[in-house]
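>> Question from a student workshop board

For tomorrow's exercise we were told to take the sequence and the ligand below, predict the bound structure, and bring the output to class. My setup keeps failing. Could a helper post the expected result so I can at least see what it should look like? The ligand is adenosine-5'-triphosphate.
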Amino acid sequence: MAAVEIQQLTKTFGKLRALNGVDLTIQPGEMVALIGASGSGKSTLIRHVAGLLRSDAGERGGQVRVLGRTMQSGGHLSPEARRLRAEIGVVFQQFNLVHRLPLLINVVTGVLGRIPTWRGCLGLFTREEKLLAMRALKRVGMDDFATQRAGNLSGGQQQRGAIARCLVQQARIVLADEPIASLDPASARKVMQMLADINRQDGITVVVSLHQVDYAIRFCNRAIAMRDGEIVYDGATDRLTPDFLKDLYGTSREELILTGAFGNRNAPDEEASDGETPDEETEETVTSVPAAPAVVEDVRDVRRAAKAS
Ligand SMILES: Nc1ncnc2c1ncn2[C@@H]1O[C@H](COP(=O)(O)OP(=O)(O)OP(=O)(O)O)[C@@H](O)[C@H]1O
Ligand SMILES: [Mg+2]
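>> Workshop helper replied:
Here is what the output should look like for this input. Compare the format with yours to find the bug.
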């Protein structure tokens, strides 16, 4: 059973064909980069897989299946879409955390798909759920920031929070739409490393759209390149040639970011996993505007319990 199976997906905005008969299959456990110039259709494709956008109506719209079940077909979301969305974690370029809430509360909302709606609406999370969130924060190296308002964290820290939320959600697929576009290189490497970790250690399927092609080459085995709503390359990242990439980006070549951040693509791996060297990231000192005291106390209590366990 494929993690994602897309057949003839077509999406038209007004006169613009944003997706044009896209066929694509992604197997469970893959980590796939989605590349292509601005406007090529990467976000539109990701949003269709997440069930956030519907394709064109009728047969020509095509269909999206996720984990063997229909997410949408012919412009209609399937009755299973809501349940399927619970299996999909999303990480966006614009960090999608609620800024005024502490990081831990943002992360614990990952359980929303599994708990009764009334409890989620009231923000009544159990101690076990908060402990789960705390463990996820620890996993991404953010447990010390649990009580901080999300809005006071750096972009990289927020993205790590968003990944922790996917872990709490127990997502089987993570769709990350340009998760590193607004980050400095050190934070970008850390976030990509975390996506790679949850892919390898937890077997989570990861689809990540990237402008930085060298990150795609470094962290993903497979790349899907899009141009004008169509897939123009689907294969190993180490077979992407500079000439192909220049051609792919065409007149938008200035968007092709080959920073040389990783030097030789055959170099050993330690560079990508050395996120903990002290000068790697300036962990912002957070001048915190505290959240509501009761919430902070509650979060502190959970943090103590997590440390003790
Ligand atoms: N809601 C919308 N209404 C109208 N046109 C849209 C809408 N969303 C996307 N488009 C258009 O569809 C095309 C594909 O857009 P999309 O955002 O998927 O590209 P992208 O590859 O993600 O680009 P970027 O790298 O800039 O994020 C673009 O021409 C865009 O202008
Ligand atoms: Mg986009």
